[in-house]
Amino acid sequence: MGLSKLAKGWRKGAVKGNAEDQNQLAHCYAEGTEGVKRDKVAAAAWLGKAAEQEHAAPQVSLGVCYARGEGVGQNLELAVTFYRKAADAGHAISQGLLGACYANGTGVEQNDAMALAWWEKATTGGNATSQHRLGLCYMHGERGLPKNARRARSFLKAAAEQGYTKAIEDLKLLNTCESCGAPDANRTCGGCRPTKGFNMVRYCTPECQKKDWKFHKLDCGGLKVCECRNCRVCEQGESSTSAAPG
Hints:
This protein is mainly α. Among the domains are: 126-174; 181-246, no CATH class. It has twelve helices and two strands. It has helices at 5-15, 19-31, 40-51, 56-68, 76-88, 92-104, 112-124, 128-140, 149-160, 165-173, 206-220, 232-235; strands spanning 187-188, 202-203. A two-stranded antiparallel sheet has the order 1-2. The radius of gyration is 24 Å and the shape is elongated.
């Protein structure tokens, strides 16, 4: 089977120096698709040509090649160089990868502050992996961040809503009080709807429920969605939380 029509078009544009066509052709070589014979060396070579034109997508792909030693000799420092080029251009995936390099000291000196800074940027671009990593940092109080149940839940929930499996599982374990951060909180909001298998908020005492209501009501929806029964707090119009264990 010969090259597909798409591959022929990409090859023609790639030879002429079009960065997007070079990137597409590189992925054909990397995956062996569109009638192109799989060739990791050729894939890396075309990625290199596209990366030279300051194209973020092939820059991060070439960085991965150097990190794994696919089609090129493994070079962790060069991997970081290409991640950084794409990250500086606002590429969320590369920002997350660069954060991981700083977190693990891979190809760069280990630096928790830099790891967190790049993960924060990546989350702005919706990178689920970085959202999950930041969620875990707040969940366990790691890398210089304090334990913060609200922040942990926010990041984990953002990643879970994108279908990120690890975040979904970790969110189920996040049973700390939404208000004070106490572990093993066994009170749940009666007005919340379970989302993908996990409750939105948990509390350790009625006092924490009341204290947090001014914040939580913006997410919960207020009295209109409250279905908890025999809830005196709701009757008083102060909260929609239930005393029933989660």
